[in-house]
Amino acid sequence: MQKRDQKRAIKLQGSTKLVTELFEYSVNSILYQRGIYPPEDFKFVKKYGLTLLTTSDDRLEAYIRKVMDQVQTWILAGNISRLVMAIISKETRETIERWQFDINVEDVPGKGGKENAAPAKPAKPERTTTEIQKDIQDTIRQIVSSVTFLPVVEEKCVFNILVYTDLDTKVPTEWIDSDPHMISGNAEQVKLRSFSTNIHTVEALVAYRLGDAL
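Request: output the structure for the sequence above.
Response:
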């Protein structure tokens, strides 16, 4: 039993790292693709068989890294259910895009364990590293190709990262409750590819504000 628990814990740590990395590269890609920061503020990196863009701005990089370090801690503990990246008009403060990543956990050690719990479901076939990497590639590629259907961002914008956690989650003092940044008025949403490890499944969608009706 102990060896099985140790093996499970190692898999959980590896899965948590992959999901966190997916979020980090997704945030960077969205910032670049949607023109929130100028192209010269990004650099090329090789990851998962892809050439990706990440910020070269020290302050922005430090901010994203700090957020992702905390997100990784919460994912590992099974405390997080959703991460949202909102693109907000700098002038009107209205949300014009909302990128949502829902996190589903198969079974986190230390969570649950009730006496009257239902029998465990049959284990799913384990996914290979190649399959998982392909999921990551497809997700990132879809974010990159989103410029083909998303409206052009013509106004100056800022962004905010929201994290949905369990009510009893210990939250650092620098984190505050925030408006959900829902899009008001005429909006559309597109479901993106899901990403799955052997422990976590991430389902993504992007909602965006439509132009004023004629």
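Residues 2-33 form the longest helix (32 residues).
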